[in-house]
Amino acid sequence: MSVTLRRLAALAVAGVLATGAAACGSSDSDDGGSTAAGDGGTPLTMWTFKQSHVAGLRAAAAAFERSTGTPVKIEVTTPQEAYITKLQAAARTRSLPDLLTVGSADESFRYAAAGILTDVTDDFDQTMQDAMLPGIARASQLSELAIENSKGDPQNSLARLTAGHWYGIPYVAGASGIVLGRRAALDAAGVDLDSAKGSWEGFVRAVAATQARSASRGGIVTGMQIPETAYQWLYRPLSFYYLGKDAFLSRQGRTHEPAWNSPESVETFELYDQMSRLWAPGVLSLGIDQADQAFAQGKAAWDVGGTYTLPFLLQQGMRADELVMFPVPASSRGKVTRAELAATPILSTGITTQSKNPEAAAEFARYLATGEGARIFAQTASEVPASSEAAEALTADPLLAPVIEALQSGSEEAFNGDDFSADPIGNPPIKHDSAVELAKLVSGSSTPQQVADAFVGIYDRAWEKVGG
Amino acid sequence: MIRRERAGDRREAITGYLFIAPALALFALMGVYTVAYGLQLSFVEWNGFSPTRTFVGLDNFKDLLWADEALSRSVHAAVGRTLVVMVAAVVPTVLISLPLAIALNSVGRIRGFLQTLYFLPYVTTGIAVFFAWRFILLPDGGLNAILETIGLGSLAQSEGWLGNPGTALWATTAVLVWSTVPLGILLYLSGLQSIDDGLLEAARLDGASSWRIATSILWPLLRPITALLVALVLRAVLQEFQVFLLMTNGGPLDKTTTVSLLTYRLAFSDNPAYGYAAALGWLLFLFSVLLAGASFLVLRRKA
């Protein structure tokens, strides 16, 4: 088959696949460019899947063009499934853009292993790493453990990559495991905010108080239609603080020590179960955006998400002074009694192997990560930037200040909500099955002990599959 | 003379072939190629990005059916739910659409208006309608409000009809039935209008009641239509994933994840597994063929 015919065929297949993705009904592609062709360098193109980032990226791109003469065209494709399908088709037809928005850890490694993204270790030098929020550079670096854990799955194996290298330059940071409260509802229920922030037990009492005041509007929400949300944003930080970092990581790792159904592990499920009766009505049917909308509409007093939840709530018309925001608190009975969040690299800029101007692409990626572009992007998109200096500029915001301060701690014991590197890599991923079992506590169909036993089975099977 | 006629025939044949060539080419590209490509995918492991595909033979099929414990458990559960939806969608569709069609057939002047009214769900079914149903089925939605108003508050679902793992599958199936009933009415109406009025008149003269006419004359005569309707609804259930994707996304607790939605999820996720998705698609196809064959046999036997 000739190359042209192959490309035609690949386009046809991509069309069919894209039709399938679009069948979900919310696919949207916007090719609007940010700039006219500049008078300087070769124009660059960057693809992203975050509609809420487009204005910020275009503002940064415009500033970049003013200082370098190189125009950068920002194109968005949503939802993420359609974006992925578009990347797959473009990779096969050799029509990838210069730059891509990618998930900072897993995704950038997977795309690099597939030959889509380049190794950016030389571009992400020590000066740049030092300019990031504490922990960002290390968390976006490929670890030996991640390579080792991927070896059982040939398609997703990272073995061809190099441990200690980077395959994307982080520009959005943040943290999952963030609680947002509706100030008016908390005041009306007489919630002591310090107690709610101070410990898991105080937090549970606070939610119970708002729910007692209004059963239909005082509960807590998160997008539990996708059960991974509550697992990742509420249970994981809670169990991390309770067990301590080492035991938390080794419980899901090859050693399974402590076992998922050990007494201390079961205790984490029991603590989580204290919240089971306090969820807002219908929480199991709410997607992520629907849960945030329900909170914004006053149908719940509490919302659990990440730092990225805040821009969405502000977009929904909430005002910053209506909200309180703090990390999911630690249990007073755990190993770690004060919640500490690691700044997590959320999104990175990847430079594609098909870029015709990789030097300029790297320059823009650096500008967006730590230069003036970082500040422009963060302020326009209301996101936490990966750059320490740009984040510092946001500490004047009374709402974001406590979170930015928590992210700047740089503690070794801080919780990194997006770090699943100790998990076995496989397909389908085990995160979903684990989250479904955990959600059975919310529906009342399992006890903490039953959930713990189910986790044992899930992890045993997964490790057996990857040869652990 | 004969030679001239043959040349004319040949020219006519060539013209005919030329006319259908574009359609054939399009079918070859969009149909045959994609089907062959899908079949090929079912024998490999591929994440959509990797430049190489790992040939795994029949392993994808084995993993889906029994070899991979976690995956096969998901597939078995999805098959079970799909079978439940098949039965739960087919029976009410027939039981609702046949009486409505008989009633419509006996209406005089406003039949056209009523036909349009009943057919509306079929032509409006889509994203907006599924979202509208979502709102109706929420804890503070229309269905609970109606139940409270008419004194049946004990039946209202405090978690909403889609948030309760025990009711979500039934609620989505009800929406599916709502969207297929118009097709049933249309098919039965066309069947009823083809029945000789004299036959019904003779039965009435012999003193047959309306119930007797419906069960002993109309039902047997409409059996081929019923078989066709059943086949169409079963096909819809097997292939339809939009209603589940848009209304519940397979939740809560995966209780509405059917085989078609699982296939979609395996292919379109942030960690795609095209080999599994293609293999599951082919298993679904084989099941559909068996089902269609069984329907055809039943149809022929009854006819």
Question: Structural class given helices, strands, pairing of chain B?
Answer: mainly alpha
Q: Which secondary-structure class do the elements of chain A indicate?
A: alpha/beta
- What kind of sheet is the major sheet of chain A? 6 strands, mixed
CATH class descriptor of the largest domain in chain B = Mainly Alpha
Oligomer: heterodimer
Radius of gyration of chain B: 25 Å
CATH topology of the largest domain in chain B: MetI-like fold
Mean pLDDT across the residues of chain B is 88
Mean pLDDT of chain A: 86
Largest sheet entry of chain B: 2 strands, antiparallel
How many alpha or pi helices of chain B? 13
Low-confidence stretches of chain A: 1-39
Q: How do the strands of the widest beta sheet of chain B line up side by side?
A: 1-2
Proportion of helical residues of chain A: 40-55%
The CATH homologous superfamily of the largest domain in chain A is named Periplasmic binding protein-like II
The fraction of residues in strands of chain B falls at under 5%
The tally of beta strands of chain B, per DSSP, is 2
Rg over CA atoms of chain A:
22 Å
How many structural units, i.e. domains of chain B?
A: 2
CATH fold annotation of the largest domain in chain A: D-Maltodextrin-Binding Protein, domain 2
As a percent range, the share of helical residues of chain B equals: over 70%
What is the topological layout?
The complex is a heterodimer of chains A (468) and B (303).
Chain A: H1 3-22, E1 28-30, E2 44-48, H2 54-68, E3 72-78, H3 80-92, E4 99-103, H4 106-113, H5 126-130, H6 136-139, H7 144-150, E5 169-174, E6 176-182, H8 183-188, H9 193-198, H10 200-213, E7 220-221, H11 228-243, H12 245-252, H13 263-273, H14 288-296, E8 302-306, H15 309-315, E9 323-327, E10 344-351, H16 358-370, H17 372-381, H18 388-392, H19 401-407, H20 430-443, H21 448-465
Parallel strand pairs in A: 2-3, 2-4, 7-8
Antiparallel strand pairs in A: 1-3, 4-10, 5-10, 6-8, 6-9
Helix pairs in contact in A: 1-3, 2-17, 11-12, 11-13, 11-20, 13-21, 16-17, 20-21
Chain B: H1 2-41, E1 44-45, E2 54-55, H2 59-67, H3 69-106, H4 111-124, H5 127-136, H6 142-149, H7 168-193, H8 197-205, H9 210-221, H10 223-239, H11 242-247, H12 259-267, H13 274-302
Antiparallel strand pairs in B: 1-2
Helix pairs in contact in B: 2-3, 2-13, 3-7, 3-10, 4-7, 7-10, 10-13, 12-13
